[in-house]
Amino acid sequence: MRGFGAFLAGLFAVVAFAVLLPTAWVTANIADEDGYVDLSRGVLEDAGTRDAVVSAVSDELGGQTRQRLVDLGVPQSLIDQTLAGVEGFVGQGLASEAVVDAWGESQRAAHRDMFRQDGSGFVVELGPLVNAVAVQAGVDLAVPTSFPIEDDSTASRRAVQLIGASPMLAVTAGLVAIVGALSAVLLARSRGAALVWLGLGGLLGVGLSYVGARMASASDVTAGAGAGDQVVSALLDVARESYDGLLGRAALGSAAVLAIGVVVVIVTAVSRRREPIAGP
């Protein structure tokens, strides 16, 4: 009976561990505002995303500048010449430290919009970024406080809702994993065998989490070419790299538990062989 109880406890621990990996990562890197800002800083390193952001910011700067020049009575040909280099200086501005910091503030504002009470979908907030580029270019523009690019689809809303629930799921899964693992070790007839089982289960959980994350991210990627779509795609790439790092560490930890279990089993078997056999 103890062996069966240890098996069930270990099974619960393994399943909970597989759930803990993605929920803990989402809690630390997506649900948490500072974690999301840190994660999103890697987005501008993607060339396609930079181009899309440059285009979106250039449209905002160019639109306002064109209107001002029209109001001043500047000839259309001169306006076109003036605005021809907008994307060029926007691209140069994105390389500055001030604009990179503004990108972080943009994503901080986007994070707050995503988790507001009315349940928004995915949001890319470009207001602070547009303002920083304008400052770098020496242009005085009336940048709107909120300049969002939103994905308000049903899938996006559902993903944001799941992200909001991730902290509670992570805490629950973590408690179940800890209690299950301790129970499995304490109930097992062989502590070494229990550790081997938990180590193998941990490696299996890592593998399932890896496959599940790939399937989930692939199913939600859209083929759009807009700035919002590009940012989402680049953010997914950055998230995959970050999550793969977590899975790598989890795999090493599981392998260590497996190795310790094997050592315990071997030591226990050797010590039993060396015990003197009682005489008749």
UniProtKB/TrEMBL annotation:
Arranged from A to Z, the UniProt key words for this protein are:
Membrane, Transmembrane, Transmembrane helix
Instruction: Give the transmembrane region(s).
Output: 168-188, 195-213, 250-270
The domain of life is Bacteria
For this entry, the protein name equals: Integral membrane protein
